[in-house]
Amino acid sequence: MTNNNEKKGLVSIIAASSLGTLIEWYDFYIFGSLATIISTKFFPSTNPTAALLSTLATFAAGFVVRPFGALFFGRLGDLIGRKYTFLVTLVIMGLSTFLIGCVPAYETIGFLAPVLVLLLRLLQGLALGGEYGGAATYVAEHSPVNQRGFYTSWIQTTATLGLFISLFVIILTKSSMDDTAFNNWGWRIPFWISIIMVAISVLIRMKMQESPVFAKAKAEGKTSTNPLKESFGNKFNFKFVLLALFGATMGQGVVWYTGQFYALSFIQNTLSIDISQASKIMMWGLGLGTPFFLMFGALSDKIGRKWIMLLGMLIAIFSYRPIYSAMYDAANLKDKQENVSLQKIESTEVPDATKSGQSLKTTVTTKVFTDGTKLKETKKETTFTDVSKVVPPTDVKTTKAVEVNSNSFWLLVLLVFIQVIFVTMVYGPIAAFLVEMFPVKIRYTSMSLPYHIGNGIFGGLLPAIATFLALRATQANDAAAKAGTKLPYDKPFLEGLWYPIIIAAICFVIGALYIHGKGKRED
Amino acid sequence: MNKLRRILGILWIVIGLAGGYYLIINQAIPKFYSDKSEDLIPAIIYAFILTPIIVGGLLIFGKYALQGEYDQ
User: Fold this and answer.
1) Which of A134, A212, A501, B31 gets the most CB atoms within 10 Å of its CB?
2) Sheet strands side by side (includes A374-384)
3) Which residues span the membrane (chain B) (predicted)?
């Protein structure tokens, strides 16, 4: 009977902790998932790539402050307790997300708009920095030692489920209105929804009890008086913080972001697949892969955490390039034959009310290929009543939206799913692994920092660095093509993958050689 | 195995320095001198956050490895 009650109690602890963490991830991902729209609303630029990069930079800024959140809230968690600390992070996250959805666009309030968005994004990063370590520690400290991997893996599912739900909410919002309404104001809805979810989660968390291990340590006067100094000023602890970072979380961070974010960015930007279809591909891949977090978490209780995580990294290192090459081929229009009889061209011309003698001409060309793939090209240009005036090429904007056929769709789902499996291998056991590396009194602080540097900085910067590497390779090829020389890169779109491959390879060697991998901390 | 762990300490120090060189020379400096205002934030992130973590972290990690702190 007592055993049953204990199990029920544990289930409600996991559910309450995971729900809050899930909502925090949802809040954080909404911004990334809507990066393209946000860039046009808040970051003025005539170059779409620059606009995208600036958003990614903001995205990275959101991640870069995460380690500071880890330090600030980790210290609080080790001083006053886990429960109150991760309650505060949840409230900060919810309010920041809601307010991002309320900031007027650059057109309305000028430079203040990107500044406000950046500040709120930084607050989101701070809150997330404090949340994860608290939730993982809280659940681990309630779990039986021999099942920590399994129970904490529920917390690990939340990061992927948060992305899944954010994509689902975006698809739902988009499908309930036309494209113009979504681009004008509809994109704000996913941000507003957050406040309801956060309110529910705060109510649930307020009823929870403090972690028994921490409560006992506090009652016995064994908590730390200066967690930061004990974590990072003490050589014995600090060497494990470094080992956790360079031997585990750094590689885990890049594998995670490649599988979840770079995959989405690649599908949307390199393959030019329509945002709704790209979201569906990701949702299937993430949804099918999520149960494997629990599987690898439970497996780590039986065979150890170290080699599951490192094997995930190793397979990822050798398979990323073939996987992304196959993704590219699945949507490559050059290999497809167009059914010319089905081509449609629609053109509209609206006079520009602000400039006399000028109009905005929009031409939408829809092409259908023999295998069922569709391409919608939208060309926007300014035209003049005075025919002698010529439209400058920089004023012509062309966007492409590909809708792949069913076979390619499922092939892309499979390729994303494989990447999510790598994610589950490296990420499923890592909460238990980090918890067991550090003692109770400095656990929240010590495990949060390497986790958020690994994920937030090494992982968070992946989209920006990988986009830069791929862009540089494309530019080098363009220059070589103009000069009539041999192209230096066979597949320039794969060059961005060198960043996760190199980081994961270094992490694999360090982890394999230096992490002990035997024995579990009992506290 | 412990000997290998210690010797590789030198490699981690070299990787830290090489990573720092790459980030400063190829990423941060060109962005600081770029005409585009949106390059400033990434430049600051590369120069003042990512570089110190990679260089400082790997230098200390390499030093600890060399000293046999990670011997098993």
Assistant:
1) A134
2) A344-351, A358-368, A374-384, A397-403
3) 7-24, 44-66
Q: Tokens standing for A353? A: 């009310």
Rounded to an integer, what distance in angstroms lies between the CA atom of residue A131 and that of residue A119? 19
Nearest to B38 among A45, A242, A513 (CB): A45
Q: Taking 60 as the threshold, does the pLDDT of residue A1 lie above it?
A: no
B43 at the A interface (CB within 8 A)? no
pLDDT at A498 exceeding the cut of 90: yes
**pLDDT tens digits along A14-43:** 888 888 888 888 887 888 778 778 878 887
Whether residue A494 is predicted with pLDDT greater than 90 in this model: the reply is yes
Which bin fits A516, alpha (ψ -120 to 50), beta or left (φ > 0)?
Answer: alpha
Q: Which of B8, B38, B49 sits opposite A54 (nearest CB)?
A: B38
Per the structure block, which two tokens stand in for A493?
């779109």
Contact status of A246 with chain B (Cβ, < 8 Å)? yes
User: Residue B43 and residue A416: Cα distance in Å, rounded?
Assistant: 31
pLDDT classification of A335: cutoffs 50, 70, 90 = confident
Cβ <8 Å between B72 and A516? yes
DSSP code string of A472-485: HHHHHHHHHHHHT-
B33 in contact with chain A, both atoms CB, cutoff 8 A: no
Residue A373 to residue A401: CA distance in whole angstroms: 11
Output the pTM of the full model.
0.87
* Chain A CB contacts of B15 below 8 Å: 506
